[in-house]
Amino acid sequence: MPLRTAEIAPASPPSGRVRCLDGLRGLAACSVVAFHFFYAFVPAPFTDWNRSGFGLWDTPIAVLWNGHFAVAIFFVLSGFVLAASAPRGAREAPAMIGLRYLRLALPALVSSALAWAWLMSFPDAAREVQALTGSPWFRWTYQPPFPPFTQALWEGGIGAFLDGTTRFNNPLWTMQAEFFGSILIYGSYAVLPGRARPLAMAFAGLALGALGQFSLAAFCGGALVFEGRHILRDHARAGCVLGLFGLVLGATYPGHAADGGVVSYLQSWLGRDGVRQVGAVLVLVALLITPAARRLFETAPLQRLGELSFPLYLVHVPLIVAPACALYARFGPLDPLALAGLFVATFLAALALAGVFLVAVERPVLAGLKAVRARLRARPASA
User: Fold this and answer.
1) Domain count within the chain
2) Is 4 inside a domain boundary?
3) Where is the Acyltransferase domain positioned along the sequence (predicted)?
């Protein structure tokens, strides 16, 4: 099942970049990789919607593999960064929305083409693993006969934005939410005066949540945090409490059976849409007011993961459904140790491919769009 709630593509960074957010994005991307890998090869825990008792899935530790919560984090981060880079007026908004589309669509198109190539190279791998594991996750991946290459280009560059889904590289479903969230933030900021924005974001977030549009509500939550950043003060204890509460709300896995008791009833709602997005907003606030956490997320390794986060998000599923599945089909079913080894190998391969994608696609796209944006903003000044 593709994740149903993210930001994955960071907007153009504002001046005075909040570097700890890059580290948070990097860890969230790793959580998505773990989610998709284990959902493919060990699906039972991800499909049991009536768990009983209490286990690791009911604790914040589940943040390590809860891809749904990771995507909520991405959308909240997008709202924050989009608000920071919002257009300076209504005349500028259309161009910035167009550039935002290109920022999302160009890497997505390349990743869809890459996914097509991987699927064509290992045409039966995903189907064979689905027969072995029974994972429903493979329903969101094309099986032979595959559509033509032109269809992969269409779905990556346009179709995913129109339909909110694609079966070449299923994480691209988030591109529609990303683009609509960009229109929401850029459009509203272009016409609203600064003093009206916090109230507007709060109202829009509540209204969208009431309508079940939780992904877009998460963008409003991130923008609201940006608008309130001036009142945030460092407070380690409050940050720890907020962060833990946010993880309990959003990172614990949904599906716990409500057997009549109050505790079980509350557990059955933790980690669901709406609650998950609230948890993601609280985690963002907690990070911003906790100095030790900020320093941790600003360390070089996490900053590197942050830089790789969008490429990693775009390239990891093709590796899972093609070469990783081919290995599992050849040697599976695997014992836990062998499966852990396959995960490590797949994760390292995804990091390596993400590094290539960063250099060959991500950085050139960002550099080109930055140059276009600078030219557009300089034009009125020279008129």
Assistant:
1) 1
2) no
3) 20-354
Per-residue confidence at 169, pLDDT binned at 50, 70, 90?
A: very high
- The answer to whether position 10 is within a domain reads no
174: left (phi over 0), alpha (psi -120 to 50) or beta: alpha
Residue 105, domain member (yes or no)? yes
DSSP code, position 59? S
Q: Tokens 């994972």 appear where?
A: 135
Sign of torsion over alpha carbons 57, 59, 61, 65? positive
- Assign residue 288 a region: left if phi > 0, alpha if psi is -120 to 50, beta otherwise? alpha
Kindly report the average pLDDT of the chain as a whole number.
Answer: 91
- Phi, psi of 269, rounded to the nearest 5 degrees: -105, -15
- Provide the residue range defining the domain that includes 283: 19-382
Between CA 178 and CA 172 the distance in angstroms is: 10
**363 Cβ partners below 8 Å, 6+ apart?**
none
To the question of pTM greater than 0.85 for the whole model, the response is yes
Q: How far apart are CA 166 and CA 26, in angstroms?
A: 24
Q: What is the pLDDT of residues 189-220, one digit of tens each?
A: 999 998 999 999 999 999 999 999 999 999 99
- Categorize the per-residue pLDDT at 6 as very low, low, confident or very high, splitting at 50, 70 and 90: very low
d(CA 160, CA 140): 13
